[in-house]
């Protein structure tokens, strides 16, 4: 395993800048996920790390050694692509052996590595088959196995599960997480699926427009998003947002007002001044439903998930919110519900990219 350091990485395509001075440190053995909307630069950044693209400016260090001028083959990395990239005329064993044979590795060592990777990924019974005889999940295991046999310093994954169906994606997430624990290897994983990021990562790097919006553990990003963009991107269903204003500032809290809601006191936050326009963020699990005494709201849609329900409400102000309700609900579209705002309210400056309001307490 190896560490990775990026310093002021910039990437331009002619007059278009797609990566804007990214700094990042990835520790040995860490599982880091790059996540963000399409076009945010995550795959470009991965290709720069791999040596498939060159940065316009900045430096890349692997184990403290600058590798900008090293080719992809010389960096000691291995990459798994979305398309599997298997040789269709070769058997699974031949696909696993191909890169090692090109390195003129001894056959005894090749056989050892193939046997270990096949056992680890449970593809021993597939070694004589060709890719056309495999399912999507089996092909992905073979693609991962090809990187495992190389014993790279860093594994790179570029949306490897996006071609799989929902059930296989869940299964492969578990298998990749298990593989990481078993190998204790450094892994960098690119996805647009924040569920994959939350369930697999030691640390998530949220990208937007070629910049890092926030980097931290999954729960750190979920509980303490740096700004409204991160708050809205991490979490499913997404965080509810309501427009409001600051009506009072105290030593360890602020008081805010939102149309249609009673004033809310929020501890641990500092605002700039009374009258400041802000946005309240409320996770769906922090909104409750009650029989009486809550805020009247029209039920717009109910999604029954079995063990929980997502209830989409329209408040009297016209704002829409989603409630994550445990168990099953009798509410139906067009009925009136009573919503209760619980703990966990967060405040953000009105502009989406601006930092969250400073916390006065840790």
Give short descriptive properties of this protein.
about 350 residues; alpha+beta; Rossmann fold; OB fold (Dihydrolipoamide Acetyltransferase, E2P); 2 domains; five-stranded antiparallel β-sheet; 8 helices; about 25% helix; about 35% strand; globular
Protein described:
The relative contact order is 0.12. The longest helix is centred in the middle third of the chain and has 18 residues, at 166-183. This protein is globular. It is α+β, with helices and mostly antiparallel strands and 362 residues long. The chain is 24% helix and 35% strand. The model has no long low-confidence stretch (mean pLDDT 91). It folds into two domains: 4-232, P-loop containing nucleotide triphosphate hydrolases (Rossmann fold, 3-Layer(aba) Sandwich), CATH 3.40.50; 239-349, OB fold (Dihydrolipoamide Acetyltransferase, E2P), CATH 2.40.50.
SSE arrangement:
Blueprint: E1 4-13, E2 16-26, E3 31-35, H1 42-50, E4 57-62, E5 65-66, E6 77-80, H2 92-102, H3 107-121, H4 136-150, E7 154-158, H5 166-183, E8 186-191, H6 194-200, E9 203-208, E10 211-216, H7 218-223, H8 228-233, E11 240-249, E12 253-258, E13 264-267, E14 277-282, E15 287-290, E16 295-304, E17 308-315, E18 320-326, E19 336-341, E20 346-349
Parallel strand pairs: 3-8, 3-9, 6-7, 7-8
Antiparallel strand pairs: 1-2, 1-4, 4-5, 9-10, 11-12, 11-14, 12-13, 14-20, 15-19, 16-17, 16-19, 17-18
Oligomer: single chain
What is the level-2 CATH architecture name of the largest domain? Answer: 3-Layer(aba) Sandwich
- Strand elements, count: 20
Number of helices: 8
Helix content: 10-25%
User: What is the domain total for the residues?
Assistant: 2
Low-confidence stretches: none
Strand content: 25-35%
| CATH secondary-structure class of the largest domain | Alpha Beta
Distance between the termini: 34 Å
Query: What value does the Rg take, in angstroms?
Result: 24 Å
Fourth-tier CATH superfamily name of the largest domain: P-loop containing nucleotide triphosphate hydrolases
Category by helix and strand content: alpha+beta
Query: Could you please say which CATH topology of the largest domain applies here?
Result: Rossmann fold
Principal-axes geometry comes out as: globular
If you average the pLDDT, what whole number results? 91
Reported for the largest beta sheet, the result is: 6 strands, mixed
What strand line-up does the widest sheet have? 6-7-8-3-9-10
The helix/strand series, from N terminus to C terminus, equals EEEHEEEHHHEHEHEEHHEEEEEEEEEE
